[in-house]
Amino acid sequence: MRNITICFYLTLLTFLFSGTQSVSFAQIGYEAQDTILRGVSLVDSSYLNKNIFSIISEPSINRSKVTIKQSPHIAQAVYNQILNASLKKVNGYRIRVFFDNKQDARAKSQALEQSIPTLFPGVGVYRTYDNPYFKVTIGDYRSRSDAMRMLRRVEGLYPTAFIVREPINFPPLEQL
Fold it and tell me: For the chain, where are the alpha helices, taking DSSP H only?
């Protein structure tokens, strides 16, 4: 168990302080599909936005428990790194539900910006003006497949909706 814990910390610290933004911590295994090697996600997505230190310390099903003895500065350094990274943008996908340059485009885009949160609670709404177009996009999706799932949900209300690739926000961070 000690080797696993040490390996985890070394991998976590290497990832956090390597400065490499393109490395995906979740992609540590590979599987062959046709002739392309694709990363296999070995991290359970139910751990997303959760405090790793408290998860490790919780008793498991067989009542075993891991005790972490570390300086509080380590947890604070991990939290600060995640917080700083969450302020940055990362390339991802959003759903464009409105794109127009007519005279009433501003009013329509504002109305859409107001109505979408009631229709799809928890989904981010972004209204932009890129001369001469008013645009409304929704969501922050890291993968195209996640964006496709949302597109299927909104197609009934917005039949002209489509997926766009643009900088997205990181998911919100829970407090340590």
Answer: 2-17, 52-57, 72-86, 105-119, 144-154
